[in-house]
Design goal:
Blueprint (H helix, E strand, L loop, with lengths): L6 E3 L6 H9 L13 H18 L3 E6 L3 E10 L12 E6 L8 H16 L14 H9 L17
Antiparallel strand pairs: 1-2, 2-3, 3-4
Helix pairs in contact: 1-2
Length: 159
């Protein structure tokens, strides 16, 4: 799938190293339960690919075609956790910190939402983040999501 600037694609072997670097970056993990080591990040990619096989959709690797082969990932998943709003389909994004503030998360997430609603026929797609993660909250607003204050909760992996 493509956008004006991005290629959203399935994962390849060359994505493992830059994904591992991103997942080990303390700045990137400020609002996530990381940092993660190489084996943990490799296992995530395996889960992303397995999700495609099971559900028919998942987290795509993001590429700036002809420029940078990997800048992060975005996509739709079915969380396999016990969160207050599950079962659901969730949209998420992870962008390498050097590519923050360029609108890539918003651009890729809009394409993911369009895919979910138009191609998959979903009625609802949710997203969540910690309250202090203002950048992700801004992305959520830019892609048309609104906060459900009654649904606020403390994520068990971040509490």
């Amino acid at each position: 799938m493509t956008t004006e600037r991005l290629l959203l694609r399935r994962w390849c072997e060359d994505d493992h190293e830059p994904f591992a670097e991103m997942m080990a970056d303390p700045e990137f993990n400020r609002y996530m339960p990381g940092p993660f080591d190489r084996s943990e990040s490799d296992a995530m990619i395996e889960r992303f690919e397995e999700h495609f096989k099971i559900e028919g959709f998942g987290m795509w690797a993001l590429e700036l075609p002809g420029q940078v082969p990997f800048i992060g990932c975005t996509g739709l998943t079915v969380p396999r956790t016990d969160l207050p709003f599950c079962p659901c389909v969730e949209i998420g994004w992870r962008i390498v910190s050097q590519f923050w503030n360029h609108g890539y998360a918003t651009e890729a997430s809009k394409a993911s939402l369009q895919f979910g609603f138009e191609q998959l026929g979903l009625d609802e797609i949710v997203s969540f983040t910690v309250a202090d993660n203002l950048a992700s909250r801004r992305v959520m607003e830019k892609i048309g999501m609104s906060r459900d204050t009654e649904g606020d909760f403390e994520h068990p992996a971040l509490a």
